[in-house]
Amino acid sequence: MSLKWRFLIALLLLTMAGKGHGLSVYEPLCPTTLARQEQPLTNAQQARRMFNQVYDMVFGKQGATLHYSVNIIGVFKTEGTIWYKEKKSKFIDEKYDAYSDGTTYWRAERKKKEVTVFDMNDDKRDKYATKFQFKPDNYDYSIKRDDRHYWITLKAKRGVKGIKEARVQLDIRTRHPQAIRVKLGIFHTTVKISNFKAGGIPDNIFVFDKGRYADYRMVDKRKKG
Question: What are the C-alpha distances in Å from 101 to residues 10, 92, 129, 207?
Answer without folding.
Answer: 16, 15, 18, 6
